[in-house]
Amino acid sequence: MVSGKYEFRDYELVVPSWYDGSEPVPLVLSLHGYTGSGPVQESYFRLGPLAEERGFLLVTPNGTFDAAGSRFWNATDACCNFGGAEVDDVAHLLGLVDEISAAYEVDPLRIHLVGHSNGGFMSYRMACEHADVFASVVSLAGATLADAAACAPSEPVGVVQVHGTQDQVIRFEGGSTPGGPYPGAIDTVSAWAAANGCGAAEPSTAPVLDLDDGRPGADSTITAFTGCPAGGAVELWTIVDGAHVPPLSDGFRIAVVDAVLANPKPPGSG
Asked: CATH no. for residue 175?
């Protein structure tokens, strides 16, 4: 693991031990939730070992501190710049991508965002504003912009929204925070399916994933949209009775990495 600093903020980078720069590799940014940090995010998602096994660069950056001493990302009105701080996290994360890409052979068609809660909100904002850079988003308990018209991606972005039906913080059906409203999980994926030019949604008929380690066995369903363009697949993984911070299974981290690595941008994109 490599520790770094970009614009006065620390980050940690996992580089596969066999990496020699001879060929480009994917880059995954893993963004923590409100009050979290890069190390907290990695201890929760545990993607580092898979970076070694599956061959991608993993960076876990830190947000900035608000007036209450909690780290946050300035993502959307709903989450989580509650103090109105003047911080440009879009520029910060783009700069971080540029810094890592200058030091390592990053495949520009395989740059992905993974986030929890506030990190999920931030991932969606990055995809809305810089679809030319990011191939896909996996959001656990986050949400896209409340105003669909404010999100106008320049090209398709793959999306996986993971959400528990009993999330009392960022509710599955949508709600609001002191900052403003946010859409529910179904509205989030529907907005992205429309933006990507997908067709109808197809819900699964039975639980197909084991994501919540607190309840062994299949506990989650997949709703996928048909007719999505290359690089623009959209899915909702619903954790039945899942909370805002569900205990994540090994199946979760494997499924997340499978999802992002299976969704590169088509050649000629960006």
From this structure: 3.40.50.1820
